[in-house]
């Protein structure tokens, strides 16, 4: 019985070892690094101006992506983004980091951006929907409609529209692709002592969005997965930690590792989900939270 699909790197794994055993002229070499390579591929990353989005965009560049387009709201990219772009140029792997100002809640504009990128690059391979917002503590019984709608508009609608913008182009080219929706452990647990009903609700919606899209797009070889980080020190969480330093100890005590995470600790899982190393993974949620769920 033969598998349903064959890796473009075939023979690979044990099959490569068996072929080498039967053909002495074959010179074995590691292929695992080839599985993670994104050579010549094109990606978009929403929320790519800073924080987790920028960290993930850089990861794709280091993997050899031809072009990674960072989509974010500011008209001009941050100094952090500019320095990262300069760093990418020094890598010498012909990868480009690009910036486009766009509101992720504007569906038609996002679709147009996706079309413009694919028209220029002639392909679309990876999408990371990382744009998101978090509002201050608000009693769930008094939560204002406008504030709730603002969070849902960015964290749910914006994620869907970003995935659509890339997925429509992936479907057009017929080469498949990987779409990674950035959720949160807050989509499956409630952050102790934090009144974040809108944020938690939005991240739970992202988890179900990914499962639904994965089922629809599987036949097109477009994979949809979610990444759910735990407490990570970013500019968004710094808004709380810098004002209330005691929260660092509290958040750190909530997982077995006794600390909060670093943005760079998400690089490995992004590399795996974005690449051919994860071609049989779709509709899944990957937790990276220091074991927060384990107790």
Automatic annotation (TrEMBL):
Q: Which domain of life is it from?
A: Eukaryota
- Key word Oxidoreductase present: yes
GO terms (molecular function) for this protein are: oxidoreductase activity, acting on NAD(P)H, oxygen as acceptor; oxidoreductase activity, acting on the CH-OH group of donors, NAD or NADP as acceptor
Name the UniProt key words of this record, in alphabetical order: NADP, Oxidoreductase
Query: Which InterPro entries does the protein's record reference?
Result: NAD(P)-bd_dom_sf, Sc_DH/Rdtase_CS, SDR_fam
Q: Which family does it belong to?
A: Belongs to the short-chain dehydrogenases/reductases (SDR) family.
- How is this protein named in the record? Sorbose reductase sou1
């Amino acid at each position: 019985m033969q598998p349903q699909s064959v890796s473009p790197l075939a023979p690979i794994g044990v099959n490569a070892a068996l072929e080498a055993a039967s053909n002495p002229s074959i010179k074995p070499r590691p292929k695992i690094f080839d599985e993670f390579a994104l050579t010549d591929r094109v990606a978009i990353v929403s929320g790519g101006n800073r924080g987790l989005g920028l960290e993930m965009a850089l990861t794709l560049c280091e993997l050899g992506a031809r072009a990674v387009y960072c989509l974010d709201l500011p008209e001009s990219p941050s100094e952090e983004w500019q320095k990262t772009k300069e760093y990418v140029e020094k890598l010498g792997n012909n990868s480009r980091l690009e910036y486009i100002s766009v509101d992720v809640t504007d569906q038609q504009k996002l679709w147009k951006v996706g079309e413009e990128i694919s028209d220029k690059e002639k392909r679309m391979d990876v999408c990371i929907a990382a744009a998101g917002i978090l509002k201050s503590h608000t009693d769930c019984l008094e939560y204002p409609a406008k504030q709730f709608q603002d969070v849902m508009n960015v964290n749910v609608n914006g994620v869907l529209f970003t995935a659509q913008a890339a997925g429509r182009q992936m479907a057009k080219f017929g080469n498949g692709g990987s779409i990674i929706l950035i959720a949160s452990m807050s989509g499956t647990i409630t952050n102790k002592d934090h009144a974040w009903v809108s944020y938690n609700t939005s991240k739970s919606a992202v988890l179900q969005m990914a499962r639904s899209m994965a089922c629809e797009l599987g036949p097109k070889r477009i994979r949809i997965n979610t990444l759910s980080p735990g407490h990570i020190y970013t500019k968004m969480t710094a808004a709380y930690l810098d004002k209330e330093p005691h929260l660092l100890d509290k958040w750190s005590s909530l997982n077995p590792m006794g600390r909060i995470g670093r943005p760079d600790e998400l690089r490995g899982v992004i590399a795996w989900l974005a690449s051919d190393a994860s071609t049989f993974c779709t509709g899944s949620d990957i937790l990276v939270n220091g074991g927060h769920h384990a107790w």
